[in-house]
Specification:
heterodimer; A: 148 residues; mainly alpha; 4 helices; 82% helix; 0% strand; B: 77 residues; 434 Repressor (Amino-terminal Domain); two-stranded antiparallel ribbon; 2 strands; 8% strand; globular
Chain lengths: 148, 77
Amino acid sequence: MYPREKQILLSLINIILILGSYSLFVYYKYIAGNLAILNDFKFWGKAYLVLIPVAIVAQIIIHIIFFIINKIVTKEDVPTITDERDKLIELKAIKLAHWTFIAGFILSMGSQAIGMQPWVMFITLIYSGFLAAIVSETAKIYFYRKGF
Amino acid sequence: MSPCPISNNIRKLRFLADEMTQQQLADKVGVTRQTIIAIENGKYSPTLELAFRIARVFRTPLEEVFSFDDRIQKGKK
């Protein structure tokens, strides 16, 4: 496996771990035993705003650790240049992630159109973003390995 | 995935150019080694600019590095 593919795989695992641990943290700290908070828009606003910097900082730290460990173990640098093929793969992955998120967005609006609770919309939005990120990273691995 | 209609002689040209490595070629044309591997294996068709850069490294005309098989192209239609 090439360093770029390892990096993408690491991102994929990070996304799952970060959102998984953040979801558990939020559930046990705020939601468990206080289900009324689910309909509090302020709670959802804070949950979104905290998730973004947490995810960015965690990704940066884990990638720095990966660069160091990869250099020690394989004595090989992870390519820092982004060439035309990388950009093309990135664009294709973004396109797939975009459509995944749009599908989630439509579902979340649909949930409100049929009269479901507001928390269904918020959860659908968070997890469609999560799914879009997974689709994006998986697509990148596929395109790097199989070509296009 | 449909077969790539563009084939190339990069591997042979590298061998003839003092056994140039994929990494050396990648550094000369400004791409990653993985991209050179993908081009050699027919998994990626480079842009015209990159194709010219590769041909220039080997000091050969573009047609000697890349060739276009239009039977594959017709098969795709």
